[in-house]
Design brief:
This protein is mostly helical. The chain folds into two domains: 351 residues, Na+/H+ antiporter like fold (Up-down Bundle), CATH 1.20.1530; 40 residues. 71% of the residues lie in helices and 0% in strands. It has 18 helices and no strands. Helix 3 crosses helix 6. It starts with a helix and ends with a helix. Pfam families: Mem_trans (PF03547). It is found in: Membrane. It is a multi-pass membrane protein. Keywords: Membrane, Transmembrane, Transmembrane helix. This is Auxin efflux carrier.
Amino acid sequence: MGVDKSELVVPLVGALQASISVLITIFFGVLTAQFNLLSTGAAREVSRACVRMFLPALLIYKLGTNLDKETGVRYVPILVWSISYTLISLGISAIACRIFKLPNWVKLAVTFNNTTSLPLLLIQSLSTTGVLDAIIPPGDDASKALDRAESYFLINAMVSNSLTFALGPRLLRPSDEDAPDEENKEGEESDGEGQESIERGPDGIVHEETSLLPQRAVRPINRVERRGYKRTTKWLQSLPPWAQQLLDFLYQFANAPLLGTLVGAVIGLTPPLHRLFFNDSNDGGYFNAWLTTAIKNVGELFATTQIIVVGVKLSQSLRKMKAGEESGTISKKSMSFVFLMRFFFWPAVSIPLIYALATKTTLLSSDPMLWFAMMLMSSGPSAMILVALTDVTGSPEEEKMVIAKFLTISYAITPLICFAVVGSLKATEAAVPR
């Protein structure tokens, strides 16, 4: 039995258009840097704001909207799948690096893909092209279905971000927007020594970092902070070494996206709070018109802004590469292995696996958007964390240039994800009961 070519051409063209739109958005970020509209420091600050403010706000809104006592169970498979494919990727890449003598950065390029801004922007573009209409069940509201898809990807992003923190600095480090600032480190050290906090500048002059609170309020607050820091440090030092290591490991999970996830879950799973935040004003939703709307507006800044920052970072890396006399060469084995894993291996594994789980078991809910999202979660280009890693670990300039080249090529071939999109779309359509 033959297959109508239009059944493949239409979604393929739609997916290709969506992926190209993401690539064009990255190009706008490159132009932003080329025309000096965003400096290196400003791009880092914007990226930090994306991760610490915009993404948590988006998680609060999306999860709070879609999560309740009836729908909360559908998020459990995402947590399991996100942790599983990340750890499997790490294991495969570690073995490959040892066998084929690949550089260490290949482990990170294989293990961590772009799980935040890229999937969200791709979903938005796919909804515009209309290719997702085929997997939206009859009678289901299209906008609500897309909201659910975004919430699924956000849960995956939260898991990936948390694992990035938890796996330790020897293997990887959090992106530069999540790394502690040097000035914050210095402030913590001075607090730990118990010195009197300086409410004014060193010369007694008020500057931009001076607290706006009165001196009478600032001094007691600083004393309480120092006492709490001393007592906590003393308590930690009294614990056995294994307990200290365990607490240190658990502390790595305390990041802004995870906190946003917890807040969104609490709001969604608590009926009175869910009603206050998301019902109509006439139906008890007294926070909806002002607080919820504000959180939504802040969260919607994340996807496009973060993609713009990706373009800025790529442009900065290319500038460094151009300025260097020796830019290094990318190993064909390394590039081929990463691209094979990111764009072909994981789609070939995840699509039939999720299809089987959706059709042969009851482990997944009956939401086709969940199946489609889970099929795509493990695909896509490597995360920009590689850029930060080279800065944090003090890698040689030649290695930085090689990684800059790799990321540029990786995002340039992002339209390859259209094949994974089409495969996921057709598999999801086939899994929907007729």
